[in-house]
Specification:
- It is built from one helix and 14 strands.
- The chain is mainly beta.
- It is globular and about 60 Å long.
Length: 196
């Protein structure tokens, strides 16, 4: 995979956690049916890059083109708390995945994790006894956990920590809208959404 370029967006940086709900309405009876599409929300982010150099615009455009728009996934590291000590912010339970009874190594959706707790099927696990932690040893520099035992299949793994969330995402659009100004600067807007 690849990492999103390390170019901070302008002030219009809007991360969100999105639900996915199916709604069926329009029945003659007036009944509306709703169903949750997933247990965990997905990360989505809208970014504006205002008054950036042509060089920065070229870097973003080249990356968008190399990902072939929405086609290819990549690692996006959230900007929240990038200049804090410790690095990042405190995140609520983030989805890691589910166990399959065989796999023991899982990338954590975070970089630079500190004050962390791993949950398996709702119960907190003990570091060293139940799992080991590797800072930056996962795909694209994400943190990684390795379970001591694969255990049962179907257990939900969740991560609570302070750090910079790092999600597997794709671009929200195949388009790369940009504006060039006469003073040698440019603007563009990009959206990313988590891919699972």
């Amino acid at each position: 995979m690849a990492n999103f370029p390390n170019i901070a967006p302008s002030e219009s940086y809007t991360p969100a956690l999105e639900n996915f709900t199916f709604i069926a309405d329009g029945y003659p009876s007036g009944v509306q049916l709703a169903r949750a599409g997933r247990l965990y929300q997905v990360y989505a982010c809208s970014m504006r890059y205002d008054n950036i150099s042509y060089t920065s615009l070229q870097t973003l455009w080249d990356f968008h083109r190399s990902m072939r728009g929405r086609l290819t996934t990549f690692t996006f590291t959230d900007w929240a708390g990038w200049d804090a000590t410790p690095t990042g912010i405190a995140w609520p339970k983030l989805y890691i995945g589910t166990t399959d009874g065989v796999t023991t190594g899982f990338d954590v959706p975070m970089k630079s994790s500190s004050s962390y707790t791993l949950y398996r099927a709702g119960s907190a696990l003990t570091p060293v006894t139940d799992y080991s932690f590797g800072s930056g040893t996962g795909v694209d520099g994400r943190d990684k956990i390795t379970l001591v035992s694969a255990g049962a299949s179907g257990d939900l793994l969740e991560w609570v920590a302070t750090g910079r969330a790092a999600f597997n995402v794709r671009f929200g659009s195949d388009k790369f809208p940009m504006t060039f100004m006469s003073n040698g600067v440019a603007s563009c807007a990009l959206d990313v959404i988590e891919a699972r």
